[in-house]
Structures are given as C-alpha cells and as structure tokens.
Amino acid sequence: MPLFGNRDDADAAGAPVARVQATPAPSSGEPGAARDRLAHTAGADPHGVFTSDLSVSEYVLLVEAGFEPLGFVVGSSIFHIGLQVGRWNANQELQVLTQAMYSARELAMERMRVEAESLGADGIVGVNLKMQMYVWGQDVLEFVATGTAVRALAGNGAHRSPDGRPFTSDLSAQDFFRLLAAGSAPVAFVLGTCVYHIAHQSAMQALRQAGQNAEMVQFTEGVYEARELALERMQAEATAAKASGIVGVNVLVSNHVWGEHATEFLATGTAVRRLAEEHRLADTSPKPMFTLGLDA
User: Fold this and answer.
1) Are 29 and 114 in contact (CB under 8 A)?
2) Would you give the DSSP letter of residue 85?
3) How many other CB atoms are there within 10 angstroms of residue 153's CB atom?
4) What is 32-277's CATH topology?
5) 226 FRET partner, CA 20 to 30 A, in 211, 219, 232, 253?
6) What is the radius of gyration, based on Cα positions, of the chain?
7) Which sign, positive or negative, has the C-alpha torsion 146, 152, 153, 157?
8) Are 171 and 248 in contact (CB under 8 A)?
9) For position 223, what pLDDT does the model report?
10) How many Cβ atoms from other residues are within 10 Å of residue 117's Cβ?
11) What is the pLDDT of residue 243?
C-alpha cells in the first residue's frame, strides 16, 4: 500500500504529488445549469440582480470599502473516498486518502472561482468550504465551496491575486474592510490537509498506564506529525500564491468515514499581501465601530 515515509522524504513536508492542475480540466468548469443562473446575475447581465450570502451590515461595509457584490458563487465535487489500511501499531500518513481530500476540495474551489470569473469579479469574500454526506453512499462525500463574488468599483483590477485571477477569502465583510483599511488585500483561501493513522496501543502499554497519570507519547507524536504536515502545506500554498502572510488560521480535526484511528487534520486561512499606497482605503473612509450596551 502506498504511504508516505518519514518526514525526511522529499514530499513529506509539501503537498501531495498529484494535486489538481493549476489549469482546470474541462470537467472543472461550471455545469450548464450554473451558466444559466449566472447569465441573469449582476456582472453578466447589466439588468441582472446580485445574489449574496451577505448580511445587511456586511453589504453596507462592502460598499463602503469600494466594492459591489455580483453574485453568489458555488463549486461542488462529489467524491468516492477510497480505502487505505494503516499498520495497526504505527503512526503514518495515509497518502491515498490525503490525496482524495485535496483533489475534491480543489475541484470545488476551482469551480467556484470559474463562476466568479464569468461574472468579471475581482474576488470572492466569505468563502465557506463544507462537506456533506448522502444516504445513497456512506463512502461518498460532497465537497461544496460557496462565497460572494465581488468587484472593485474603481475597476482597475488592483485587488486581484498576483496571477490575475479573482482572489478568494474566507474573511467576513467586516474583516475584509479592516484588512483593506490596514493597507492589505486577500490573495487566496489556502489549505493544508493530512489524513493520518494514529497507532493503536498494545495491551502491555495499556496495562502499564492503567491507573496512572502518564503522557501517551505515541499518540502525542502522531498528532503532532499530522498537524504539522497540514500547517506546512497550508503555508506552502501561501508562498506559491506570492502572499506575505496568512490570517485567520484554523485547524479542524475530523474522522469522517474511516474509523476512529484514521483522522484528517485540515488547516485553513486567508493568504494576504500588502497593497500599493494608491490602492489603500482613504483615511476619510468610515471606520467600523464596536458598541457595548450598558443594559444589565
């Protein structure tokens, strides 16, 4: 069974080898049904209406930041998650499963980004990446990426990512406003994942620890290894996107459909970069305020 080796291996600290290609395959574009919906959305149709998952407050802040919403964009990929067995008493990454989780998410993200491009968007705010299961397949997971495509009112493309495509960000409209006010802009929603088999304890190990306070070193080492691989891969994505940093980092731990000892560690965040002085928000722009009620 193909597994990653030790961390000393060339690919161990980076993303899995068979990542989705940067240039999307024909199957990664939006389906015909999505094209029909987007054709009547602001950005594609001068008389179309925008759609979004923004609250009223977020919409107002977005406009104050010099952006307009264009449409609610979606990307989806339904994947059959394969099987891979780890050695019972060994900590090790399950590369086949890691690759499946990467590929499915990348396809969903790419399809969402293609929808935004069709609307002429400069970026996507409020990206939400989730998974859901269906009753017709326990090993089938749908990966869904959603967000609101936005366009800068200035129309100069300065806020797009360095590759010229719309930026992606999981920041709320409030945080997006604050980021622009600080002279930075989002580049990409970045992620790193690692599906890891946490070793079982032997009967003797369990007996020796019975009734005692003792660190479970094998478990600690396995969890450390898996979490670090996920974080390093997220950081590598930000570097590849020519970002200067990552904000809003979050690490999720999930078991999904593999059983209690096969666990996914998913690190996510928004990679950001500094803007040129002429593209920053003016000092006269309204600043978000926090109001604390005095009611008992």
Assistant:
1) yes
2) P
3) 12
4) Translation Initiation Factor IF3 (3.30.110)
5) 211
6) 22
7) negative
8) yes
9) 84
10) 15
11) 95
For residues 219 and 172, give the distance between their C-alpha atoms in angstroms, rounded to a whole number: 36
Give the per-residue pLDDT at 259. 62
Closest CA relative to residue 124, chosen from 175, 73, 59 = 73
What φ, ψ does residue 117 adopt, rounded to 5°?
-60, -35
CA–CA distance, 149 with 38 (Å, rounded to integer):
11
Instruction: Report how far apart the first and last C-alpha atoms of the chain are (Å, whole number).
Output: 62
The type of residue at 75 is: G
Average pLDDT of each block of 10 consecutive residues along the chain (296 residues)? 33 42 44 76 82 92 92 89 62 84 91 93 94 74 92 87 94 91 93 83 58 70 88 96 95 74 88 79 55 65
109 closest CA partner among 98, 119, 124, 94: 124
d(CA 271, CA 148): 18
pLDDT at residue number 42: 80
How many C-alpha atoms does 250 have within 13 Å on its Cβ side? 10
| pLDDT for res 100 | 85
Per the structure block, which two tokens stand in for 59?
């919409």
Residue 249 makes CB contacts below 8 A (sequence gap 6+) with: 231, 234, 267, 268, 269
pTM of the predicted model as reported, rounded to 2 decimal places: 0.77
